[in-house]
C-alpha cells in the first residue's frame, strides 16, 4: 500500500515533468465495445461547428450574397472544382461526399491545432484533433474504399471487375493489392501527419513554452490543411478512376 | 525505481489518475502561443479572404448587371421591331385601300372619256347625216327650180307676143312707182 502510494506520488511527479500522454485514451463502454470517448467528443464538436455554421450561413439566401453566404458558396465552388477535375463529367452526385470528407478533415485538423483543448481536463487521455486517432482515419479511408467500389459497380455493373486484368493479366496481383494499399495509405498519411504535428508542438511547448513553438504551429496549420485537400482529392481521383471508361 | 516502473506499466493498462476539470497550467495549455497564432491567422487571413470574397461578389454583380443590360437591350430591340412592323402593316393597308380607290378612279375616268369620245362620234355622225340631207334637199330644190324655170321659160316663149310684153312692162312700171311712194 505504501509502495503503491509512493509510486503514485512519483508518477505524479513524472506527470508534472513530462505531461506527454501518448496512447492513453478515455474509454467509454458502449455495448460490448470500448470507445475512444475523447475522439467522439471532439468529433461532435467538429460536427456541431460544421452544421451550425452551414445552417446559419444559408438561412436567408440572396441573389447578391452576404458575407457568410459568399464564403460558403466559395467553398462549395472550390469543392465542385476539385470533384470536377478528378471525376470528370458525372461529378454531380459525388460533391456532397467529397465535400464532407474535405470539410470534416479540414475542420477537425484546424480545430485540433487552434482550439485550446487542453484547458478541459479528462480523467484519462486528453482532447485533441479527432483525426489523430488511427480509428478515425481508417474509418474515413474505408468509407472512401466503399465509395469507389460503389461508384465502379453502379456504373459498370459486374464489368467493373474487368479492370483487374487491364492492361495485362500479369498485373492482376498488383491490382488486387492496390485495393488494400489505397485505404491503407490514405489512413496512415492523414493519421501520421496530424499526430506527428501534434506531438512536435506538445514537445516543443513542454521544452520552451513561449515563442519557439509558433512557427511549428503555423507549419502544422499549413500541412494539415494540405492533408485535408489531399485526402479529398485522392478520394475523388479513386472514384473517378473506377468510373472512367475503357482505356 | 522498479516499483515505479512496475506500477507505471500496470497503470498504463488502466490509468486512474485525474478527473474532469479545468487545467489552469498556463505552460501546459499554451494559450499565449495559441492566441498569437490565432491573431496572426485572423489578421492576414481576413485580408486575403475578404479580397477573394469581394472579387467573387464583384464578379457576380457584374454578371448580373451584364445580363440585365443585355435583357434591356433585347427588349428595346424587340419593341423597335414591333413598332416597325406595325408601321409597315399600316402602310400596307393604306396602300391596299388607296390602290383600290385608284383603280376605281381610273376605271371611272376611262369610262367617262370613252363616253365622251362616243358622244363626239355620235355628233359627227349626226352632223354628217344632216349635212347630207341638206345637200340632197338643196340638190332636189335646185333641180325643181331648174325644172320650174325651164317650164316657165317654155311657157313664156310659147305664149309671149308684143301686146303681152307691153302690158307686162307698163304693169311693172306702175309697181315700181307704188314701191317708191311707199319707201318715201
UniProtKB/TrEMBL annotation, chain A:
It is a multi-pass membrane protein. It is found in: Membrane. The chain crosses the membrane at residues 35-58, 94-114, 134-153, 190-212, 218-239. The keyword Membrane applies. This is ATP synthase subunit a, chloroplastic. Gene3D superfamilies: ATP synthase, F0 complex, subunit A. Keywords: ATP synthesis, CF(0), Hydrogen ion transport, Ion transport, Membrane, Transmembrane, Transmembrane helix, Transport. Its main location: membrane. SUPFAM superfamilies: F1F0 ATP synthase subunit A (SSF81336). Belongs to the ATPase A chain family. It comes from Hibiscus sabdariffa (roselle). InterPro entries: ATP_syn_F0_a_bact/chloroplast, ATP_synth_F0_asu, ATP_synth_F0_asu_AS, F0_ATP_A_sf. The keyword Transmembrane helix applies.
UniProtKB/TrEMBL annotation, chain B:
It is a single-pass membrane protein. It is found in: Membrane; Plastid, Chloroplast thylakoid membrane. GO terms for molecular function: proton-transporting ATP synthase activity, rotational mechanism. The chain crosses the membrane at residues 32-49. Residues 64-98 form a coiled coil. InterPro entries: ATP_synth_b/b'su_bac/chlpt. GO terms for cellular component: chloroplast thylakoid membrane; proton-transporting ATP synthase complex. It comes from the Eukaryota. Its main location: membrane. F(1)F(0) ATP synthase produces ATP from ADP in the presence of a proton or sodium gradient. F-type ATPases consist of two structural domains, F(1) containing the extramembraneous catalytic core and F(0) containing the membrane proton channel, linked together by a central stalk and a peripheral stalk. During catalysis, ATP synthesis in the catalytic domain of F(1) is coupled via a rotary mechanism of the central stalk subunits to proton translocation. F-type ATPases have 2 components, F(1) - the catalytic core - and F(0) - the membrane proton channel. F(1) has five subunits: alpha(3), beta(3), gamma(1), delta(1), epsilon(1). F(0) has four main subunits: a(1), b(1), b'(1) and c(10-14). The alpha and beta chains form an alternating ring which encloses part of the gamma chain. F(1) is attached to F(0) by a central stalk formed by the gamma and epsilon chains, while a peripheral stalk is formed by the delta, b and b' chains. Belongs to the ATPase B chain family. In plastids the F-type ATPase is also known as CF(1)CF(0). This is ATP synthase subunit b, chloroplastic. It comes from Hibiscus cannabinus.
Amino acid at each position: 500500500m505504501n509502495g503503491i502510494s509512493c509510486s503514485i506520488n512519483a508518477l505524479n511527479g513524472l506527470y508534472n515533468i513530462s505531461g506527454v500522454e501518448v496512447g492513453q485514451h478515455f474509454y467509454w463502454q458502449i455495448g460490448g465495445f470500448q470507445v475512444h470517448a475523447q475522439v467522439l467528443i471532439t468529433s461532435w464538436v467538429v460536427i456541431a461547428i460544421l452544421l451550425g455554421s452551414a445552417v446559419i450561413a444559408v438561412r436567408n439566401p440572396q441573389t447578391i450574397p452576404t458575407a457568410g453566404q459568399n464564403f460558403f458558396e466559395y467553398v462549395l465552388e472550390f469543392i465542385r472544382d476539385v470533384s470536377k477535375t478528378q471525376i470528370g463529367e458525372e461529378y454531380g452526385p459525388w460533391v456532397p461526399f467529397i465535400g464532407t470528407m474535405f470539410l470534416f478533415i479540414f475542420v477537425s485538423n484546424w480545430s485540433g491545432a487552434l482550439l485550446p483543448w487542453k484547458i478541459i481536463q479528462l480523467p484519462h487521455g486528453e482532447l485533441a484533433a479527432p483525426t489523430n486517432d488511427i480509428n478515425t482515419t481508417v474509418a474515413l479511408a474505408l468509407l472512401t474504399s466503399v465509395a469507389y467500389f460503389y461508384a465502379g459497380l453502379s456504373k459498370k455493373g459486374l464489368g467493373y471487375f474487368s479492370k483487374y486484368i487491364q492492361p495485362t493479366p500479369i498485373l492482376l496481383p498488383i491490382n488486387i493489392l492496390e485495393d488494400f494499399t489505397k485505404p491503407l495509405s490514405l489512413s496512415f498519411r492523414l493519421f501520421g501527419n496530424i499526430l506527428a504535428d501534434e506531438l512536435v508542438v506538445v514537445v516543443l511547448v513542454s521544452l520552451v513554452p513561449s515563442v519557439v513553438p509558433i512557427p511549428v504551429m503555423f507549419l502544422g496549420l499549413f500541412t494539415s490543411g494540405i492533408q485535408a485537400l489531399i485526402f479529398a482529392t485522392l478520394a475523388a481521383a479513386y472514384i473517378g478512376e473506377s468510373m472512367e471508361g475503357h482505356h | 525505481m522498479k516499483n515505479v516502473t512496475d506500477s507505471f506499466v500496470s497503470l498504463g493498462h488502466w490509468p486512474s489518475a485525474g478527473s474532469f476539470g479545468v487545467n489552469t497550467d498556463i505552460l501546459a495549455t499554451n494559450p499565449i502561443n495559441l492566441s498569437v497564432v490565432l491573431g496572426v491567422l485572423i489578421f492576414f487571413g481576413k485580408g486575403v479572404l475578404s479580397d477573394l470574397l469581394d472579387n467573387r461578389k464583384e464578379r457576380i454583380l457584374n454578371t448580373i448587371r451584364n445580363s440585365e443590360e443585355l435583357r434591356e437591350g433585347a427588349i428595346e430591340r424587340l419593341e423597335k421591331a414591333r413598332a416597325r412592323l406595325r408601321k409597315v402593316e399600316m402602310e400596307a393597308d393604306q396602300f391596299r385601300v388607296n390602290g383600290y380607290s385608284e383603280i376605281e378612279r381610273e376605271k371611272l375616268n376611262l369610262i367617262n372619256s370613252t363616253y365622251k369620245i362616243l358622244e363626239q362620234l355620235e355628233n359627227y355622225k349626226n352632223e354628217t347625216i344632216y349635212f347630207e340631207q341638206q345637200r340632197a334637199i338643196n340638190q332636189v330644190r335646185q333641180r325643181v327650180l331648174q325644172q320650174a324655170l325651164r317650164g316657165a321659160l317654155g311657157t313664156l316663149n310659147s305664149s309671149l307676143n308684143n301686146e303681152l310684153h307691153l302690158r307686162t312692162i307698163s304693169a311693172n312700171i306702175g309697181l315700181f312707182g307704188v314701191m317708191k311712194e311707199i319707201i318715201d
